[in-house]
Amino acid sequence: MAIDETLEHVWADVVTRNPGEPEFHQAVHEVLSSIAPVLAKHPELAENKTIERICEPERQIIFRVPWVDDAGEIRINRGFRVESNSALGPYKGGLRFHPSVNLGIVKFLGFEQTFKNALTQMPIGGGKGGSDFDPKGRSDSEVMRFCQSFMTELYRHIGEYTDVPAGDIGVGAREIGYLFGQYKRITNRYESGVLTGKGITWGGALVRTEATGYGAAYFAQQMLRARGTDVEGKTFVVSGSGNVALFAIEKIHQLGGTVVACSDSHGYVTDANGLNLDTLKDIKLVGRRRVSDYVESHPGAVHVSDGSIWDVPCDIAVPCATQNELTARNAAALIRNGVMAVVEGANMPATSSATSAFLEAGVAVAPGKAANAGGVATSALEMQQNASRDSWSFEYTEQRLEQIMSGIHAACYETAEEYGAPGNYVVGANIVGFLRVSQAMIAQGII
Ligand code: NDP
Q1: Active site residue 136
Q2: CATH numbers and ranges of domains, the chain
Q3: What is the CB < 6 Å shell around ligand 1?
Q4: Whether this model's pTM surpasses 0.90
Q5: SS3 317
Q6: pLDDT tens for residues 383-403?
Q7: pLDDT tens, residue by residue, 293-343
Q8: Helices in 160-239 by DSSP H: which ranges?
């Protein structure tokens, strides 16, 4: 996808001002490649330099996180919080704990989050944070001490009306619990709305755990229906086996699809009869083990440690692991095997060239900022329940999630048509998100 010449100066500026941040460049490039038609129709957006302002986060915080491991050794990690844009509400976005985390990755995630949150139509701005800390192999006490040290700096930057973090890779209910405990201890406030993804007995919302994966499955259903078909009877491949992947698999199965493969960073497992979710949950959620263990109880299944999950034939590919996990070579294999749609559960899981290859081949692509927005939307529902001291039933919350996903699908689909790119959800999502954020920014003046 190419950038219109009227926006080339923005692109050049982003690359110069943010050296060594390829993921951030990639995320900006995708948006810049989509928005020329909307700038032509709304000249006030260019006059107010809203895209230039969106490309510069409002605030970037980097801090030291010292902690002591179980052997008594002092460890030092780096913490980040990038507060990208608050035009539509308090900064909102997850925390990622993974050794690959750096400023460029957090900036790309915060940039994406701004558009995603706008797509939900909820009152939330965009932000993201995390650390290069690796929770894998660490004891619960080590994770707790790390989280306490991380929050001892982060607490001064967040709050229910300021910035509301949540989970992401490496940050689940356990980590959110430790982070919340330390926030409460330092501030002496039981401020439920300061973090989302909390345990359901102490302020968390039902469906939040399932929301991102369920939402991606609902988005897939809408896409297929728009193409005159449905999930029923289709074969899916879902990469990853974390929070997003497991619940995407669950909902796809409930909707009548069959997921034949999933993965972790050590390989993938295929089961032609459809993956058994109880086994997967037992391995990943209870035991924090590897997907390779799946074959022990399912002799018909195969574990592959040195290949690509995208070589497994499927009707719909659902990448749910991490950024740039699906390359042009993988896209070629999927296209050769007849894939009809790609639904991004992860953030920016397809490289730019993979996305271009899919679009050229007529494969529908749901970008992460649309397809995985169910997680943050349900976080906003959690904030709503916290503010009103209420808690909703699973059924009601899931119904709200389904409506939100259907609204996002309709907005992306109709906007793509309106701007001359029918069926292109990438263009549709970028334009809808950009317009909503820009209009709020213009109303709020030059800040
Ligand atoms: P989890 O930590 O629960 O799971 C991540 C999964 O991806 C694991 O199976 C992990 O395997 C695999 N993975 C992570 N990094 C890599 C890597 N570098 N190479 C190969 N595999 C990898 O994270 P989530 O499920 O929460 O997040 C997955 C994606 O979804 C991310 O892109 C995240 O930003 C996005 N997302 C998450 C939301 C949420 O609500 N949680 C909301 C919206 C988007 P292993 O265990 O072996 O590392």
Answers
A1: no
A2: 1-56+430-447 (no CATH), 58-190 (3.40.50.10860), 210-362 (3.40.50.720)
A3: 167-170, 212, 240-245, 264-266, 320-322, 345-347, 372, 375
A4: yes
A5: strand
A6: 999 999 999 999 999 999 999
A7: 999 999 999 999 999 999 999 999 999 999 999 999 999 999 999 999 999
A8: 173-187, 208-226
